[in-house]
Amino acid sequence: MKKLSVNISRLLLAAVFIVSGFVKAVDPKGTQYKLEDYAGALGLSALLPDLAAVVIAVALAAMEFCLGVFMLFAIRRRLTSRLMLLMLAVLTPLTLWLALTNPITDCGCFGDAIILTNWQTFAKNVVLLLAAIIVVCWPGQMVRFISHSNQWIVINYTALFILAVAGWSLYYLPQFDFRPYHIGANIREGMVIPENAEQPQFETTFILEKDGQQQEFTLENYPDSTWTFIDSHTVQTRQGYVPPIHDFSITTDEGIEITDDVLADSSYTMLLVAPHLEDADDSAYDVINELYEYTRQHGYPFYCLTASTERGIDHWRDITGAEYPFCNTDATTLKTVIRSNPGLVLLKGGTVIGKWSHNNLPVIDESQWQQPLDRLEIGRMPENSAPAKVFQIVLWFVLPLLLLTIADRLWAWSRWLRRKPKVPAAPDSEQTKC
């Protein structure tokens, strides 16, 4: 029972840490934003610059993923189990504080892939903490999947793999997009509230006075007109259904909202998304300007969505020569739309057709200049590549470790056979008689 409980706990910890670390590495910018939310809730925003937040986000993702893989393979069993216990000993009280005070609604344990409430996160960490205690008490009971002499291969390969995933996602865009603005999503449909959706509920309390005494009442026990109204307050008792997209709006510099016009346009619309132009990368401004000229020639709308002030917009115009119109959108929404500053989003009828980082913006050469977008590759929605991406992960990470494990076990088995003492053959019966 001891060995069974240890290995069940070990596999549970490995699975959670691998998934948590991988989804963080796939979207390090999202992890950065969540860390900044934590810093803001603790009043430490000034002590966490952007670069430090990115480094911490990548390091946290790599540590979780590596610890999960090491726990799965029972590598450095005592050290790995102690590090996991240390992490959970810190995270569990932190998530209890989040559940009690609710400074942020989502802890970000699994990025945007799995959204948990703060109380669900705390319960999860309590279970994991108990599992970590079991593993720490008897680390020697963990069954090894690979020999001690070959553990260094898994250690180095795992670290290189997860850092490569994080680096790719930072330079380009996340390989897996779990947000409501992913390619193929229709923004208008994401904003719709179904007719049978759960509605929010509110409770109003009235403070009334009679004969110099004040008393609180609700709508159910509201008194007669002999009472004098003093005050009232309303609290929300149930949140109700919240659509996946509920804060997307586009407003021109003149204060005119054009959200419906943009999303209802059956043609193409190109959006340059830059949450903060003051910090935006301007190395690809010439490609952006060429794309704007292309859209002008073919009559496609082109807008730059930003949360920057007029001063930031003017500065961007000065250094890039931008002539396209600028519109205002909430900064958090823009960071959710695309993990790049700036990034390019192509819409058609409110549906996301394509998304590009500023490091791989599409280039339209002279031979394609006269062709409309529906004849170009960038104007066609790519096929669902999620299965292909999963296959790549299996090909580049799971399969090599699986083959290594099989080879290691075969080698260990053959070594055991060679060392196994040979039993002497029984003497021949006729020779025995003689």
List the helices and strands and how they pair.
Layout: H1 2-26, H2 28-41, H3 50-73, H4 77-101, H5 118-137, H6 151-171, H7 187-190, E1 201-210, E2 213-217, E3 228-238, E4 251-252, H8 259-264, E5 268-274, H9 285-298, E6 302-306, H10 310-320, E7 326-328, H11 331-337, E8 343-348, E9 351-357, H12 386-419, H13 429-433
Parallel strand pairs: 5-6, 6-7
Antiparallel strand pairs: 1-2, 1-3, 4-7, 5-8, 8-9
Helix pairs in contact: 1-3, 1-5, 1-6, 2-3, 3-6, 4-5
Characterization of this structure:
- The structure is a single chain.
- This protein has 434 residues and is of the alpha+beta class.
- It has 13 helices and nine strands.
- The protein has helices spanning 2-26, 28-41, 50-73, 77-101, 118-137, 151-171, 187-190, 259-264, 285-298, 310-320, 331-337, 386-419, 429-433, and strands at 201-210, 213-217, 228-238, 251-252, 268-274, 302-306, 326-328, 343-348, 351-357.
- The strands form two sheets. It has a six-stranded mixed beta sheet with strand order 4-7-6-5-8-9, sandwiched between helices.
- β6, α10 (310-320) and β7 (326-328) form a beta-alpha-beta unit.
- α1 crosses α5 (118-137), α1 (2-26) packs parallel to α6 and α4 runs antiparallel to α5 (118-137).
- It is flat, with a radius of gyration of 30 Å.
Instruction: Strand order, main sheet: write it out.
Output: 4-7-6-5-8-9
Report the uncertain regions.
429-434
What is the chain-wise order of helices and strands? HHHHHHHEEEEHEHEHEHEEHH
Shape: flat
> β content, as a range?
5-15%
- Strand segment count: 9
The total of helices stands at 13
Q: What share of the residues lie within helices?
A: 40-55%
| Major sheet | 6 strands, mixed
Structural class: alpha+beta
**What's the alpha carbon Rg, rounded to whole Å?**
30 Å
N-C termini distance: 55 Å
What is the arithmetic mean of pLDDT?
88
